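Input.
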Amino acid sequence: MSKNKRSSKNLVIFTLVILVLFITLFALNQATKDTEENNDVIAFNGAPEITNQPTMGDPNAKVSIVEFGDFKCPACKAWGETIMPQLEKDYIDTGKVTFSYVNVLFHGEESTTGALAAESVLAQNPDAYWTFHHELFNAQPANQSHDDLWLTPEKVLELAQTYTPEVDLDKLKADVENQATMAQVNVDNQLVQDFNVQLTPSIMIGDVMVTDPFDYNKIKEIIDRQLAE
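Output.
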């Protein structure tokens, strides 16, 4: 083989080696980037079904947000006080997203009582639901232990009477006692299992769940990306 041919062959081999190294480094860099992104969100094959769920915002909005929450959960109350107002201002009130709430029953009987009562109010008068929802969270005692009893049938009736006079109290009382809305609560519980909800609040934006529900910048980033798709 002539010297020129050997040089040309070596040059081709060298070029191929450099190209392979470049592709490998790019792939490793992309894998690292993907890992970092995946630390911020958990992706699913679809978004939660929100039919018959309490929902606010323009029903034709492109993006849906779902909170998996528990009326007994202090972190859910804190999320509603710190993150939700900005979310409403930026995206819900402007018609860009819908916001739905799914009951989680991590605190047993009291969580169930709150969920049953809220679903009864929703069934009676959807316009009264969000007021009742917010007042349930507002009623969380500030100076009691996390597990102290407070979310009782008597308490939900007191809140309904005070803040949602349009709700039929006798029907609400009977619904809670007879677990009349348990079918919808069971639908919520199935969603909790389907989306492997481990903590409350858990926030899903479309088909992704944010790992830190209090990171509003990340929430905003995901919403904006989905709106642009």
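Residues 3-40 form the longest helix (38 residues).
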